[in-house]
Design a protein that fits this description.
This protein has 412 residues and is mainly α. It has one domain: MFS general substrate transporter like domains (Growth Hormone, Chain: A), CATH 1.20.1250.20. Helix 4 packs parallel to helix 6, helix 5 runs antiparallel to helix 8 and helix 10 packs parallel to helix 15. The longest helix is centred in the middle third of the chain and has 30 residues. 50% of the residues are buried.
Length: 412
């Protein structure tokens, strides 16, 4: 392969196509059920609005709550990833589900800034237990043959997650902003997802805990990153896309309100977006090679469309955010699949946690910046500039890795 071709491949984000036509293993049915139940949380479409309407929290206070939640999950990411690798990924998932349930209990009985803060701290730690462990658990639960189908399984697991968002948004639309009822339903569903998690088998790579060798898990992940330009490029793209998507996800209900959408209709809009993502995730493994090859042009193109949508009225603004967040979610699933394919076996969850650590740090910074620069609680302009800045950073970063890839490929 020529130097020019190698550089172009690195710039565009080309990675190997791992999609196959292998049948899915039996465990995936339980994984798909868990993916649905763990995210069928009917308070999701309204919880940011709930903070203001039920708890009288200001826009700046909401931004602070979201940022603290992200910071807590960031701080907990690496320790929980090490715990998952050294103890049990199933144990990590169980702890995460328990903490998710406790979050909604606290919010139900303490509808004020302090209660929301305590709930977010619990949730942040619980999310850290899940984020690095779930993909690693899924990957390690597959045998050698089925590992080739991980991209298909993970994308379809994400489809069930989005189906859960769709169902939750529809239920929230029907119920309306009756926050205590939505929280009670969320507690009930979280209890079911905890029960499913308890029924999962342990992965075959579980090892005995030895305190003196714990640092080797983290050093293994860091060494893999240091020694592979390809892995660094994958992680960089994944972090930027996930960080941007995290910020937009947190402010999505507020965004819809501020472009002129009625409160209850926001849940319906989010449901429509989630339904479209279900179809996209279900079939995206067929486009894995194309997504890998054209990742950067896709981001630049849809960022441009999103920017243009700001001046086109309510419909254009809603459609613009809809398209942009769908493509970001698709790219995020693709990048996370590639991370698992290239992660060391002994530190798979830790590497996933390192990725989440930096992505959440970026997302927390973006959420804080949008809240800080909001004028009279208006967030549209800060969101626009945040998207532009992150896209430019992604372009520059991918150019850098293109040069690095070419340098590595050039013989001395």
């Amino acid at each position: 392969m020529s130097k020019k071709r190698i550089a172009l491949s690195a710039l565009l984000g080309r990675t190997k196509n791992t999609a196959t036509s292998e049948p899915l293993p039996p465990l995936t049915k339980r994984i798909f059920t868990l993916s649905f139940m763990s995210e069928f949380i009917v308070i999701y479409p309204f919880y940011v609005i709930m903070f203001g309407q039920r708890g009288n929290v200001s826009a700046a206070g909401i931004g602070l709550l979201l940022a603290i939640w992200m910071v807590v999950s960031v701080v907990a990411e690496v320790p929980t990833g090490v715990i998952a690798d050294k103890l049990s990924k199933k144990t990590s998932l169980i702890l995460g589900r328990i903490m998710q349930l406790l979050t909604f209990v606290v919010w139900l009985f303490a509808p004020n800034f302090t209660g929301y803060l305590i709930g977010f701290i619990i949730w942040g730690i619980g999310e850290a237990f899940i984020s690095g462990a779930f993909q690693a658990f899924l990957y390690e639960s597959l045998d050698g043959t089925h590992k080739k189908t991980f991209g298909k399984i993970y994308s379809r697991s994400s489809a069930f997650t989005m189906l859960a968002y769709t169902a939750a948004d529809l239920v929230a639309f029907v119920v309306g902003p009756h926050y205590p009822l939505l929280l009670i339903l969320s507690i009930a569903v979280s209890s079911v997802s905890l029960w499913i998690t308890l029924s999962l088998p342990r992965t075959h790579s579980t090892v005995t805990v030895e305190v003196e060798v714990k640092p080797k898990v983290l050093s293994s992940a860091l060494r893999a990153i240091r020694n592979s330009v390809l892995l660094r490029r994958i992680l960089f793209a994944a972090i930027v896309v996930q960080g941007l998507m995290g910020m937009l996800g947190e402010y999505m209900p507020t965004y819809y309100l501020q472009v002129g959408t009625p409160t209850q209709l926001t849940a319906l809009l989010m449901s429509i977006g989630s339904a479209a993502a279900v179809l996209l995730y279900w079939w995206m493994h067929h486009l894995e090679a194309q997504i890998a090859r054209y990742q950067l042009p896709i981001i630049i193109g849809f960022t441009t469309l999103f920017m243009l949508s700001f001046g086109g009225g309510v419909v254009a603004a809603v459609v613009g955010l809809f398209l942009y967040t769908r493509i970001l979610r698709t790219l995020s699933v693709h990048n996370e699949t590639q991370i698992q394919h290239h992660a060391p076996d002994e530190s798979r969850a830790t590497l996933g946690s390192l990725y989440s650590f930096v992505a959440k740090l970026l997302s927390a910074g973006l959420v804080s910046a949008v809240g800080f620069f909001a004028v009279a609680n208006r967030i549209l302009v800060p969101i626009r500039w945040s998207v532009i800045a992150v896209t430019v950073a992604l372009l520059l970063g991918m150019l850098y890795f293109s040069l690095r890839q070419r340098a590595v490929a050039t013989p001395e």
